[in-house]
Amino acid sequence: MIPITSPESLGNVLRKFRQEQGLTQSDAGRKLNMTQKTVSQIESGKPGVRLETLFNLMSALGLEMHLEPRSRPEKHKAIW
Questions:
Q1: 50-69 burial, b for 16+ CB within 10 Å, e for fewer?
Q2: E strand or H helix that includes residue 72
Q3: Among 18, 19, 36, 71, which is least packed by CB within 10 angstroms?
Q4: Is residue 16 part of a domain?
Q5: Up-side HSE of residue 70: CA atoms within 13 Å toward CB?
Q6: Domain count of the chain?
Q7: Distance in angstroms (rounded) separating the CA atoms of residues 66 and 37
Q8: Of the ranges 28-32, 39-43, 48-52, 76-80, which is most confident?
Q9: What is the pLDDT of residue 23?
Q10: Residue 10 contacts residue 45 (beta carbons within 8 Å)
Q11: What does the alpha-carbon distance between residue 47 and residue 19 come to, in Å, rounded to a whole number?
Q12: How far is C-alpha 51 from the geometric centre of its chain's CA atoms?
């Protein structure tokens, strides 16, 4: 399991899975009727991306999200 603790780490994981499927950002965007720029923003962890858009991209890549508590929470560190 890959720990995801920030928008940037989520974007990195999505980029990895997209590339493993041989898709460009434009290819992934076309599957969802979104622009390459939107895919790039998600993969870069940029703010302002709607959750619905994120879940649509995850679905197109055949991914789903599972949440679980951290095994050792970091003291005084914001998640975002």
A1: eeebbebbbebbeeeeeeee
A2: none
A3: 71
A4: yes
A5: 9
A6: 1
A7: 26
A8: 39-43
A9: 96
A10: yes
A11: 22
A12: 10
More confident residue, 1 or 76: 1
- Reduced to 3 states, what is the DSSP secondary structure of residue 8? helix
Q: Looking at the whole model, is its pTM more than 0.85?
A: no
3-state secondary structure 26-67: HHHHHHHCCCHHHHHHHHHCCCCCCHHHHHHHHHHCCCCCCC
CA torsion angle for 12, 14, 17, 19 (degrees, to 10)? -70
Helices 25-32 and 51-60, axial angle in degrees (round to 10): 110
CATH number, position 34: 1.10.260.40
66 within domain boundaries:
no
CA angle at residue 46 from 10 to 12, to 5 degrees? 25
Distances (CA, A) of 79 to 62, 70, 73: 26, 11, 10
Rounded to an integer, what is the distance from CA 17 to the centroid of its chain?
10
